[in-house]
Design a protein that fits this description.
By secondary structure, the protein is α/β, with parallel strands linked by helices. Helices cover 41% and strands 20% of the residues. The protein has 16 helices and 15 strands. It has an eight-stranded parallel barrel, surrounded by seven helices. A three-stranded antiparallel sheet has the order 10-11-12. Helix 1 runs antiparallel to helix 10 and helix 5 runs parallel beside helix 6. The radius of gyration is 25 Å and the shape is globular. The structure holds zinc ion (ZN).
Amino acid sequence: MSLIKIFDTTLRDGEQSPGVNLNKQEKLEIARQLERFGVDRMEAGFPASSKGDFEAVKAIADTIKNTSVIALARAVKFDIDIAWDALKGAEKPAIHVFLATSPIHMTYKLKKTPEEVMETAVSMVTYAKERFSEVEWSAEDATRSDWNFLAQIIEKVIDAGATVINLPDTVGYTTPKEYGELFRFIRETVPNIDQVALSCHCHNDLGLAVANSIAAVENGATQVEGTINGIGERAGNVSLEELAVAFKIRSDFYSFETGLKLNEIKRTSDLVSKLTGMYVQANKAIVGRNAFAHESGIHQDGVLKNAETYEIITPEMVGVSSNNLFLGKHSGRHAFKDRVKEFGIEFTEDELKQAFDQFKKLTDHKKEVTDDDLYTIAMEVKTDSSAVSKYQLENFQVQYGTENVPTATVILKTPAGDVVENSCSAPGSVEALYQTIDSLVEEDVKLVDYQLNSVGGGKDALAESHVQLVVNGETVNGRGSAQDVLQASASAFLNAVNRYIIKVKTIEKKELVK
Ligand SMILES: [Zn+2]
């Protein structure tokens, strides 16, 4: 079995998914989970793209110890310098420098000749190598590039000090056979290719990302780049969990394995969907709600007689546990703390108090609190702890009837400590609630997206709402959970507004000081 390295880019390519907007704490929680999951490398972000991204990459670099933390950089000194600033505290820092090599990108986007592109790639890899011992170089849009040109530039970039060569299928255009042949061609043509690791990076525009990545591996790639749940630009990236489980289940056929802890898949997937607001479809392979559900009578009967009749993967293998341990009204602080600790979450005393209070409130209405509920509460506290004073929902009431105009009354505490109140009517109850909150918030707010989901099953399941707002021209996401859908919706809205406030008060202040 050869060990294939896993390069996770959930926090960079995944975070580029439309509508996804993670804050620093959320990125840190995902990074911690990726470390537990056992990825070899995590691409934490693109520090030159924004101050917020820089801060997040730095926080991850300073926290994560067992996984190499990597940052993306264009082939310019500015990006490489900033990446080093963000990563210098990391245990195993690495940089990922990219430059497009396809005729269409070189001509229209870069406005450079192939010779100029080659010169830039070599000089920037040389420059990056002065600071980083690990330098990955990506030929952006490799699958639409001239193969001979690719071979030439790769040879030079390796001489300049690159340690990993990545051939991304940036636009999700290639096919398994073609992509495999590209890897074989590069491996057989580039004389110094043995000095580096070869990496594949596939997008799923044609639904071929997993097949393409496997073809690359069969033809010499030793590293696969992808994301959890396959999130990413457009149709997304390769789903790392699908690839890893395919290697495991078909180990009779494939001679590859990954170092991923497969029983952490479910938790990693849940965390990423919860924090990004990108829920996976029910029939998604490995992590979809229906991935282990057998509906037809014949299938059910077969599974009862012998699970292997229709089940090729056991839920336990990927961390889907059937024996949920419930906590309830009489569970104490200790039981609560221990349970949360099993998720790998460490609370400060203050966070523990907040989370335990929320848990107690929930047990007033819900008899059995599931792991999903606990995880939701824990993440809410973990990703929202900030000393900045924010808007707080004091009280609200919504009147709805099929024959009346829905009306909401809301009482809020503002960041300045004032208590304000207003009522508004609108065609729908959520709309009335949102209009009222909007009227009380000083910021200019526009609602872009609204989602409502249930956490786990049952009629007393927690509701979880995700919103995307544009606050004073800046896009922010918010999340809220509660037993009632309206309360979850109100919390999500305020959470987004508060995130804007935290962002402005913390990051921009630092920017001014600098
Ligand atoms: Zn990509």
